[in-house]
Design goal:
The protein is mainly β and 374 residues long. The chain contains 2 helices and 26 strands. It has a domain of 75 residues. The longest helix has 5 residues.
């Protein structure tokens, strides 16, 4: 059984509350409240908010509290030293700017670490061997080989102004969020284990051919990305987010046959996507606007979900005759309408739409299944 307490509620009127060992607790609160709870159970969903560094010493006596966050930017730790951090912690989240971390000062039990900035060099042995998730907003000094533990599966770095040398990222990394860099990724920079790569708004470097690993399944790019080259994308991609306002054509011979989800702002002639998805059978296509004489007619798509961004406008996008794939069997539309019964090809037998008052005269006779879905 789990007890959920809203973070606005504070425990102040009693010195001690004894909880039954079968009761789990979901509560984010200052240590002053959480330290009053007594239980033999480890509270996996509790987060203790640390307001001053001295509270870390108090926390050492509360081993059932495994997760902490440094609250309201109230503390600064120029250097993390051995013995400062309680040895039983599993997760640390903070907006601290840290000058350096002594090797062995972070608990070996630590699985998740988030800090705002590390200004000094990061040596081998700083990060514990069991760390799974690491997020650092700014890394000032160059990362060297063997600094990141081989246990790491998720890494986020917002700002990093150095080359990312081959073999710096651990073999075993699955997810990498990389937002800002002046340096191109090199061959060998990204481990073959990586499945998800998110390049942020300020990543404006080239994605050279064969840099991305062959097993990558998700690639998210933002508006400052450079021209996409042939062999930049592995054919294993199932999800692709094309940069916002991207206006350069894809290489003619680039085909992503395993693609299931494509996000692109504008479906228009300057960025034809037909060759890219020519052999795809099922596709969720998220877009902002359809412009000009563009078409998905010559693709092999049998199931298509046309989904317009909800955040841009409440106006519907309109598809014309000849736009939809000739092989289409099932169609779902969200934020999209059509003005003629000839828009939907004869091969299509199922239509799902979020338009409640769709004119029945626009629905062709070949549609056997008509569904409404928000």
């Amino acid at each position: 059984m789990k007890l959920n307490i809203h973070y606005m509620n504070k425990i102040t009127q009693v010195d001690t509350i004894v909880l039954h060992s079968s009761l789990d607790l979901n509560y984010i609160a200052k240590l002053n409240s959480l330290k009053r709870l007594v239980s033999n159970r480890v509270f996996k969903s509790c987060v203790a908010q640390i307001t001053i560094v001295e509270e870390l010493e108090i926390l050492k006596n509360h081993r059932n509290l495994k997760n902490i966050t440094f609250y309201n930017n109230s503390s600064s730790i120029p250097m993390i030293r051995v013995g400062m951090i309680p040895s039983h912690l599993v997760s640390i989240e903070s907006d601290l700017i840290i000058t350096s971390i002594e090797p062995g000062s972070l608990p070996q039990t630590l699985q998740s670490l988030s800090v705002m900035e590390i200004t000094g060099p990061i040596g081998i042995g700083v990060f514990p061997a069991n760390l799974n998730t690491l997020s650092i907003y700014t890394v000032r000094k160059k990362l060297e080989k063997e600094v990141l533990p081989i246990s790491l599966t998720s890494l986020s770095i917002c700002s990093y102004d150095h080359p990312l040398d081959p073999d710096v990222l651990p073999q075993g990394l699955i997810e990498f969020n990389f937002h800002y860099s002046f340096e191109d990724l090199q061959f060998g920079s990204i481990p073959n284990s990586l499945k998800v790569l998110r390049l942020g708004h300020y990543y404006s470097q080239h994605l050279n051919p064969y840099v991305l690993p062959k097993g990558l399944t998700t690639l998210m790019m933002n508006e400052n990305a450079s021209a996409i080259q042939l062999d930049s994308f592995p054919n294993t991609l199932t999800e692709l987010h094309v940069p916002m306002f991207y206006n350069k054509p894809f290489p003619v011979d680039m085909q992503l046959d395993n693609l299931k989800y494509l996000r692109i702002d504008y479906i228009h002639p300057p960025v034809p996507i037909t060759n890219l998805i020519r052999n795809v059978k099922s596709l969720h296509l998220l877009f902002h606007k359809i412009e000009g004489e563009t078409s998905l007619y010559d693709t092999a798509i049998e199931y298509l979900y046309l989904d317009r961004y909800k955040s841009f406008t409440l106006e519907l996008a309109t598809i014309k005759v000849g736009f939809l794939p000739k092989s289409l069997k099932k169609l779902r539309l969200s934020g999209v309408d059509f003005k003629s019964s000839d828009v939907i090809p004869q091969s299509c037998t199922s239509l799902t739409t979020n338009i409640k008052d769709l004119d029945p005269d626009l629905v062709p006779s070949n549609i056997k299944f008509l569904n409404y879905k928000k």
